[in-house]
Structures are given as C-alpha cells and as structure tokens.
Design brief:
This protein is α+β, with helices and mostly antiparallel strands and 143 residues long. It is 20% helix and 47% strand. An eight-stranded antiparallel beta barrel has the order 1-3-4-5-6-7-8-9. The protein is globular and about 70 Å long.
Length: 143
C-alpha cells in the first residue's frame, strides 16, 4: 500500500512540475533562484531572426558578444566589432512574474530594453526581443 501511495505521489509531483514550467524552453524545475541563475558571464552562442539562424552574419567573424550580469543589479554588455568593441552598462531587473527582464542603460546612454526570457538554466540563458514584429532570439551559454 505504501508503494502505491509513493508511486501516485511521484506521478502527481511530476505532473505539477511539468505544469509549472515558467519559460518556453525550460527548465521545468530548478533549486536555484532565478536571480542566481541569471547572474554570471554569458557568451552569445546563437542569434535567430524569426527562427532563422543569423549568427554568422550577426557576428561578422568577430568575437561573440559578452553579457555580464551581477546579482547586485548591474550589468555590462560588450559587443565586438572590427575596430574594437562597444560596451553598454547599467542596471537590470526582472519584471513582475519574472518572465521578462529589463536592461536599463546608464543615464549617459539613456535606453532601456525589455526581453522575454525563453530559457534560464545555470548554463543557458535565452531571450527574445521583438523589434517591429520581428522576433530576435539571443542564445547565450555560460562563460
């Protein structure tokens, strides 16, 4: 009888975990907080425009972008080009529900961007930026 209860409890827990999936691409369950998972150094691995892989043309043969996110709420984004790099920095925050993240550039830059989180794991961070009806997906891996 105890085995039957354990089996049923395991099945129920599995169904609940699948139903609790926060992000489109996962994970279904994590013991780490979202803030702990998003914090760290991330390297751009793939860039998609409306589902089409445009990584090669986006990078143009140069080093992949580097996104550094601090638990304190600060971030730095380094975009490499042929003659150097452009560094954006500022503060970040989750929006209510933690399904989106907002990056607000330093006052000297003055821009802010909101992205939909697609995947947030210890070693993967994917987000989508919708620009005039076009979905741009950024897939980062942990550095």
């Amino acid at each position: 009888m105890k085995q039957k209860r354990f089996f049923l409890a395991t099945i129920l827990l599995g169904i609940l975990l699948i139903g609790c999936k926060k992000y489109e691409e996962g994970p279904a369950f994590s013991l780490r907080t979202k803030k702990a998972r998003i914090s760290g150094s991330w390297v751009l691995e793939k860039y998609l425009v409306d589902g089409v892989d445009e990584t090669a043309s986006y990078l143009g043969g140069y080093s992949p972008d580097l996104l550094e996110i601090e638990k304190s709420g600060d971030f730095k984004y380094t975009d490499y080009y042929f003659n150097g790099s452009i560094i954006d920095y500022g503060v970040w925050e989750f929006l209510p529900g933690k399904e989106e993240v907002k990056f607000k550039m330093a006052p000297s830059i003055g821009s802010e961007f909101t992205y939909k989180i697609l995947k947030l794991k210890n070693n993967e961070f994917w987000y989508r930026w919708n620009v005039n009806g076009s979905n741009r997906d950024y897939h980062f891996k942990a550095k």
